[in-house]
Structures
1.
Amino acid sequence: MSRFTQKIKNVPLSTSVGILSAGTGSRIKSHEPRSLLKVGPKFLLQHQLDTVNSVFHEPEIVVGIGVEANRILKKFSGKIRFVENQLHDTTGPFETLRLIVNNITNNSILFFHGDLYFDIKTIASADFSKSFIVVDSRDKMREKEVGVTIVNDKASILSYGLDTKWCQIAFLTGKEFAILRQICSKTVAESKTLLAFEVINSIINRGGAMKVYEPDSMSIVEIDCMKDIKNENFNC
């Protein structure tokens, strides 16, 4: 696994990783928390942890949880840090991200949605000296997902109805991370329902620059329905 670590370009000395996993698997007719969905031989969260730890050296991982928090804590006790979004039923992913950002110690963060199953190649070759989002133009993500308009290899706006899709993975450092910190420190009621892509748009609107990164080869699945678990070959 160390060979993947050696491929990382300009990786920061230390980084934080945030996993937004406060919701349920209700869309796949399961009331399990996302973290405890069984995908192949592993819990989804365990696969995500294995992937992240294969890419980074001792990352600071913080998982945002909500539904069935005690069950998750029991299964993963002592392995990683958790923050609980006690308002997960009435708030959006940004509230979970806000809690994570306010509980990390590094000046950069890789964050992703908790229902993603992706392989090491998805992030291992990224340039971590700059802020970026992972994108897909090869139909790996669904047509209904949030897309991105790209200008000079940078994201200009994330919105629905665009062909190139955001893979729900983002890395923020430098100015962009500082802007995220500012947003997270000044919470108003309206922001609690924001989606993650809306926060990225806010960062761009405040002068942040988000590079777009599409891996040459990656395997990524958003677990959105039971068919995703049954039909995919989960050997990422």
2.
Amino acid sequence: SERESEIVLLTADHTKIYWGRGVEFQNATELAPERKIEHLEAVMAQAGRLSDKEYVDIRFANPVYRKRSFYLGGV
């Protein structure tokens, strides 16, 4: 599906980062990789660590995340 993220990164704490499409994908709505990194940094600055997040979606102009409803343990 074109609405689904083609690339999903998985952290050591099992947080999914919805990246979007590869760099070869040409679409007006697909953000440049640099913007996606900026979005990830903004989420971390605002919401702290990623280990307590179920997912972070950095594909669009306004990144979103969902906190876990359970604790996995660890740091």
3.
Amino acid sequence: EPVGKQDQYISALGGLSEFTFHKDDTVEYNRLPISEDIFFKLEDSILLFFTGYSRSASSILVTQDNQSNESDENMIANLDSVKEMGLISRELLINGDINQYGLLMQDHWNKKLKRSPDMCPPQIKKYFDIGLANGAIGAKLIGAGGGGFIMFIADDKNQLRKVMTENGLKELRFKFDQIGVHVLQH
């Protein structure tokens, strides 16, 4: 299936890292040199809410893959722009500019929607609008296939938490994993 492998890599490694995926299928990674203060500031600004939606990513990703393989001009320009956003986000995170990172994350989400407008049900789009009007700086959908969780970067977590809960979404509290996959000895 035409799915990315970034999720598997970050799950295995943990922390905040940058990846370079080469055409020969090799992958390089480096931990981002982020101070503990910035790390906690980022962690504290993120809220995750379960949407209640779940569906397969296959049809969405097949369309994107076909357009990429056919060198569709709009798709390639969109993907190049997203790649540039990744480089910018690296610098924003290292420098601790969480608000700008949130705005960039929102721009990234808008670009992703242009690639696959049908990937996001209208109800989830409504949740985005509500969140952005109530304390969120940026948002994106995480989870394969246009469902799963909405991740917000929030300026006002209390207001965002209140309004999302009132709209029936359940918050998932989390912390970044720094270790990744490891073997427990007993």
